[in-house]
Amino acid sequence: MRARLWQVISTGFIFLLFFETIATLSQSPAIRPPSYLAPLALSAIDDIAVFSDELGTNSDIYRGQAVRAAAFGTSFTMGIETPSKSNWSRALQAARPGIHIQNFSMVGGWDSFLANIEKAKSTGITYDYIFVSLTLVKGNRSTTPNPEHKIFLHSDRFQVSTGFPHSLHLLYQVFGHPQETNASLSKLFRALNKLSPVAAANAQVRSVFDPKNTVTMEHMKAISACYERALVQSQCRERFEMELSATGRSQKDIYDDTYLACQTEVDRTCGAPVRLDFVPHFEINQVASYREQIKILLDLVRPLGKRTVLVSQAIFSHSDSPNLYKMLAKNNSASLGFALDRRQAVAMSTHASWQRSLIRNNEIRDAARALRAEDDSFDFLDLAESVDGKSDAESLFYDFAHLTPKGHKFYSEFLIEQLGL
């Protein structure tokens, strides 16, 4: 009997050791080498959302135009909620056929910037203009892109950001979402994942918030991915718009009663923590952090071109607009904001996420203006200020952080006017 038990234990140990070895190797750059291929499709807006240029970016193929520009940014500059033919870079090219814009922008954050700058360097091209969209978040200091970032060949579906045991974290990625697997099995793997020594260390709360309302960085990514899929499947935006068109009720009332109820069900499905309806203190007064990031970006992009142009992001800022809640009621990740405090994250309501975006954008603009006052080797164009001054500003936004085709047209006209293109 004892020999039989020992055989079972040793067999299980060998199996787990073998699984952990494979899981560890799967995270190694030696096994998953970086590639500069972008995902084939990032938007449901286009019938065929395949990048068409030779570098796998959201750009037209270069055809010998006299002036070449490169653009770096995130979803705002990529135009994720707009048909590719209607984004700002193609609108500018249509107005000025002698200019070609290589739009290196990609959904994501700091790693998107770094990885795309590396991609641009690999071309050996010296551009006439370098456009950098200042869509930043606090705390980034690295100058080396994460080799596991989704801009590269493989998906980040099975990327883990923590250490040993990799196998446990990968099992959580597969089975830890009740939307995608049996609920009981999901609960089991959520519980097992907490046994990880790394997860236990990450679970130490480093903020004033209730531990029950915080998640680790790894869980935040998993929740966000689940949330975006479930939001589309639940048709929260569609429910809001159907009731809006069928009744005479105000947008805010329908948002509070219909959209938030749908969103709450999605939160429950994906295990999102209780949302804060305010902006946490550690997300405010981060001008110094943004200033440092802008300096890093300037140092990285200057060798790529003759003239560097920083451009602020436009955020819808009219709190008294009757259409604000229509912008908040969208089926995208902007409606679930996580505030980051070291290695912990707390979820914010969509309204608080919008307020945080405004605060963050204003602080980034302050940092850029201060740097420009000290250094005239680059240009700073305040797109946000121009958009805020428009009487029809709401028609320029798809949601509070992304532009409509009309907004992209305004963006292109703004650059043409400010730079004399």
Structure in words:
The chain is an alpha/beta fold. The protein has one domain: Rossmann fold, CATH 3.40.50. Helices cover 46% and strands 11% of the residues. It contains 15 helices and 10 strands. The chain has helices at 2-26, 75-78, 88-95, 110-123, 166-175, 183-193, 197-202, 217-234, 236-246, 251-270, 287-301, 324-328, 350-374, 383-388, 405-419; strands spanning 67-72, 99-103, 127-134, 215-216, 305-312, 337-341, 344-348, 379-381, 397-399, 402-403. A 5-stranded parallel beta sheet has the order 2-1-3-5-8, sandwiched between helices. A hairpin with a 2-residue loop joins strand 9 and strand 10 (402-403). Helix 5 (166-175) runs antiparallel to helix 6 (183-193). The longest helix is centred in the N-terminal third of the chain and has 25 residues, at 2-26. The radius of gyration is 23 Å and the shape is globular.
